[in-house]
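Table S2 (continued). Query chain:
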Amino acid sequence: MKRKDEIQKSLRGDIILGKLMQGERITESELTLKFNCSRGTVREALVQLSKDGFIEHTENKGSIVKKLSAQDVRDYYSLMAIMESKAVEWATLRLKNSEIDRLVVLNDSLQSLNPDDENYLEEWCVRNAAFHEIFRKHCGNHQMPWIVNEIRQRIFRYLFSSLLTSLNKEYLEDHENIIDAVRRKNPKEAGEAMENHISRAKEFLLHFLKQTGAYSNSTEVDNIKFTTEPFCRNFRSHH
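Corresponding output:
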């Protein structure tokens, strides 16, 4: 692993787990000492973290951990639910059997991932993104992929945080419901299944962020019960 990637992964983990708090300043000089590298390498890592939404960087003020907003989560995930559900709806009658089989393979590969593996979160994100991308690629709208990818770039930090919950089983079941509707060539049901999937992820993430103290202004999902500790404990052991 390149040193800049090592720095990026370490800082990302510290931010997700709250070791680096919202608004906390990140200094290049301290990182160069900690990782025994040049300032240029540190800057490369910070630039990427800024693009991924983990920090805010200004030329004269340096870098600080970006504050999470419950409203941002609602806004971005609501847009995702609309866009992704339409992508599935439009793609349902276009997908070939081989492409549907690929959806099954990807979902099975997600299920086979071991939460104890060091690269579990990264692998989940890559394979899950590939699952969703199939619908955007075959929906018949050439603007859909880049629009959704733009939104996904902005919620990259939230995607990592949401995977610290123990609800991945529910996510996989959502995928199975989508695949089932697609196999039956039912665009409306397939689109609704995807919309429910994204909405579920939004509600779980809002609850997770409140549970972990990332913000304190959301009460809309207090009735959802789940634990984050097994995933948090595992993630800490690797960072």
